[in-house]
């Protein structure tokens, strides 16, 4: 009896084992794809970021196809991120001297000819500046025209590509000294009481004034090294260029102007012998001495009798330019101009000028 009971227990255990085995075999065979290697989803974390997990991958693809489906959006987003960063660039920095002093209130200009854009900003209390939302380009130019005694600064080309660019600007100081000079007429005699306007060509918008003393001399303290020009305003407009100042040399500037004992007068008539009033009369004078070029212009208008006069002229050749206007029969205004060279120290000092206004 005990032997039959043991046999029954063994039989029941055997039947249970066979049933479990058959059931497990059916589950595996019903979906063979579940046994594929799992390394195809090794990038599951980035995929969640790029929402690749939301894609439906149909059964029957191999592991390489699954991997490609997940990596494709990752690569695309990397390129999009790069494009997004390079399309919005920030350029920052500071402006200071070579001695490490930050300079506030300077205007920093950034422009690109390729993009046809121009930006400007004024430096803050610590000399800082920042440009935002810039587009990438290879031809940016960064420029500062200092207000103080510093050389102009230009950086070109400046390539902007990454999203954060830092560029600091160091301005170089201009050496200073005392500029001295003397004004004389063509005979070498001093000319007093002349107001001079002196412009530095090394610093934008920097101009100063000086007046000649009883010796015809002038001086300007703290004058910047480099190129400059002189000018006189008034009835005689004069400009002298080609000068250079070096504070270590201390050379005296000598300026000759068109002043002397001569005068030039004249009358202006049309082709019919009628006087022309209101005509513009210019008298130009030029002197070239090595690199120095001096040019002066005087201007008067003919009176009601067509007469004009210039006084206190220096010797030598002068260019006389006369411009007159007359209306024609159809209501048009016709301008006529004549030019001629006059040696005021030799030629007659009263001229008769005819202008054909037809």
List the helices and strands and how they pair.
Layout: H1 2-30, H2 44-49, H3 63-86, E1 89-97, E2 107-112, E3 117-122, E4 128-134, E5 137-144, E6 153-160, E7 164-166, E8 169-171, E9 176-184, E10 195-200, E11 207-211, E12 217-224, E13 226-232, E14 236-245, E15 253-256, E16 262-270, E17 280-289, E18 292-301, E19 307-313, E20 317-327, E21 333-343, E22 350-355
Parallel strand pairs: 1-7, 1-8, 9-15, 16-22
Antiparallel strand pairs: 1-4, 2-3, 2-5, 5-6, 9-12, 10-11, 10-13, 13-14, 14-18, 16-19, 17-18, 17-20, 20-21
Describe the structure using short key phrases:
22 strands; 358 residues; four-stranded mixed beta sheet; elongated; disordered N terminus; Immunoglobulin-like; eight-stranded antiparallel beta sheet; 4 domains; alpha+beta
Radius of gyration over all CA atoms, rounded: 45 Å
Largest sheet: 8 strands, antiparallel
SSE series: HHHEEEEEEEEEEEEEEEEEEEEEE
Strand order of the largest sheet: 11-10-13-14-18-17-20-21
Q: What do the pLDDT scores average to?
A: 79
The total beta strand count reads 22
What is the molecular shape? elongated
Helix content range:
10-25%
Low-pLDDT runs of 5+ residues are 1-85
Total tally of structural domains = 4
Q: State the fourth-level CATH superfamily of the largest domain.
A: Carboxypeptidase-like, regulatory domain
Name of the top-level CATH class of the largest domain: Mainly Beta
Distance between the termini: 154 Å
- The fraction of residues in strands falls at over 45%
| CATH domain fold name of the largest domain | Immunoglobulin-like
Number of DSSP helices? 3
The CATH architecture of the largest domain can be named as Sandwich
**Structural class of the helices, strands and pairings?**
alpha+beta
């Amino acid at each position: 009896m005990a032997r039959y009971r043991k046999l029954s227990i063994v039989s029941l255990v055997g039947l249970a084992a066979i049933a479990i085995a058959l059931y497990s075999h059916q589950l595996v065979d019903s979906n063979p794809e579940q046994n594929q290697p799992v390394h195809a989803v090794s990038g599951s974390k980035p995929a969640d970021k790029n929402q690749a997990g939301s894609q439906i991958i149909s059964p029957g693809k191999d592991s390489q196809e699954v991997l490609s489906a997940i990596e494709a959006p990752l690569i695309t987003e990397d390129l999009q991120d790069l494009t997004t960063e390079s399309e919005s660039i920030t350029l920052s920095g500071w402006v200071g001297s070579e001695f490490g002093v930050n300079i506030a209130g300077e205007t920093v200009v950034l422009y690109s000819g390729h993009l046809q854009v121009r930006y400007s900003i004024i430096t803050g209390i610590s000399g800082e500046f920042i440009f935002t939302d810039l587009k990438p380009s290879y031809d940016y130019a960064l420029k500062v025209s200092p207000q103080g005694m510093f050389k102009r600064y230009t950086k070109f080309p400046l390539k902007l590509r990454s999203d954060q660019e830092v560029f600091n600007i160091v301005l170089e100081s201009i050496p200073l000294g005392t500029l001295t000079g003397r004004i004389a007429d063509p005979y070498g005699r001093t000319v007093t009481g002349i107001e001079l306007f002196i412009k530095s060509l090394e610093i934008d918008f920097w101009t100063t004034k000086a007046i000649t003393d009883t010796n015809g001399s002038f001086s300007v303290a703290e004058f910047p090294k480099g190129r400059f020009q002189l000018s006189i305003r008034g009835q005689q407009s004069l400009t002298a260029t080609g000068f250079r100042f070096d504070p270590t040399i201390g050379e005296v500037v000598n300026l000759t102007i068109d002043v002397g004992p001569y005068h030039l007068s004249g009358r202006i008539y049309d082709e019919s012998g009628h006087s022309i009033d209101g005509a513009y009369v210019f008298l130009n004078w030029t002197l070239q001495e090595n690199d120095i070029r001096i040019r002066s212009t005087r201007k008067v208008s003919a009176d009601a009798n067509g007469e004009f006069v210039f006084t206190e002229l220096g010797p030598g050749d002068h260019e006389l330019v006369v411009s007159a206007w007359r209306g024609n029969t159809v209501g048009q205004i016709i301008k006529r101009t004549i030019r001629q060279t006059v040696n005021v120290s030799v030629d007659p000092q009263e001229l008769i000028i005819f202008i054909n206004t037809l």
